[in-house]
């Protein structure tokens, strides 16, 4: 079988997730099943080429992590079973007919759902009560028919909390700097980084820029809270990858992906980086800290 990842081969997070996938597959009774891991990073063209190569090799199952990778593989085959992690609205994207009965060659596990847009704003407001404006940073690859999945709950929650919301689409790394510079210039602003291949690849840069400009930031992807972001709230990717491996095991034993329901995350983690908060002069309340699953000091 084969797997397509949104990381470079040297990325520690990517390697850890790949090993978690391998271990879960062994636990499913497939200790000798080889897995051809491919690493596309955030490069759309490289991802497309790798997807084409994987499909040409005719593996029994392909695993795709995140939407850009799923899109590349799904475009290349309608017959090879595909198990995904990370397509937030697989029905909206047209990957499956319904969540309960996918009906084709694709099934898997969502990671991020629309209501998270509101939860990220609420967490930021509770952490920094003086915040007046917030920007949601996203990439077009995560949009569904030109619409941002998180925008509506993001805007409605911000409005209810008296915060001015802005949704900004960035397509390349160079687009990030002016967004953060504008927030720094206006003052009393915060940033929310929507999940996806782009933010996986550029999260460290965003952490560095927001730290330098003292902009409180909430990430969907947990590793960036460990690396200096103020907070993260989102699903546990390791758990999702393990659950996906269980589906792969079932397909390898003859089950049909068309009848395996798409499932949502069961475990979400809220992580607060107290060291970063102190560096920004942000006094996180004891009530908010009590909600954290983990505090980085």
From TrEMBL:
Sorted alphabetically, which Pfam families does this protein's record hold? ABC_sub_bind
Q: Which InterPro entries match?
A: ABC_transpt-TYRBP-like (IPR007487)
Source taxon at top rank: Bacteria
Q: What is this protein called?
A: Protein of unassigned function
């Amino acid at each position: 079988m084969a797997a397509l990842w949104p990381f470079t081969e040297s990325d520690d997070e990517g390697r850890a997730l790949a090993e978690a996938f391998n271990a879960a597959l062994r636990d499913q009774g497939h200790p000798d099943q080889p897995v051809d891991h491919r690493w596309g990073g955030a490069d759309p063209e490289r991802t497309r080429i790798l997807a084409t190569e994987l499909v040409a090799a005719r593996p029994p199952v392909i695993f795709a992590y995140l939407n850009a990778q799923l899109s590349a593989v799904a475009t290349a085959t309608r017959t090879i079973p595909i198990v995904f992690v990370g397509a937030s609205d697989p029905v909206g994207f047209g990957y499956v007919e319904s969540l309960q009965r996918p009906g084709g060659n694709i099934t898997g596990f969502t990671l991020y759902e629309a209501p998270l847009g509101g939860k990220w704003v609420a967490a930021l407001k509770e952490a920094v009560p003086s915040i007046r404006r917030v920007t949601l940073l996203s990439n077009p690859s995560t949009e569904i028919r030109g619409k941002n999945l998180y925008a509506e709950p993001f805007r409605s929650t911000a409005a209810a909390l008296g915060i001015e919301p802005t949704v900004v689409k960035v397509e390349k790394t160079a687009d990030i700097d002016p967004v953060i510079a504008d927030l720094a210039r206006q003052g009393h602003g915060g940033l929310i980084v929507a999940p996806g291949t782009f933010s996986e690849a550029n999260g460290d840069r965003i952490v560095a820029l927001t730290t330098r400009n003292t902009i409180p930031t909430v990430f969907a992807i947990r590793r960036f809270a460990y690396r200096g972001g103020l907070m993260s709230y989102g699903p546990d990717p390791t758990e999702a990858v393990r659950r996906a491996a269980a589906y792969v095991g079932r397909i390898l034993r003859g089950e049909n992906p068309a009848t395996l329901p798409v499932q949502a995350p069961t475990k979400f983690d809220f992580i607060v980086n107290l060291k970063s908060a102190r560096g920004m002069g942000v006094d996180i309340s004891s009530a908010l800290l009590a909600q954290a699953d983990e505090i980085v000091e």
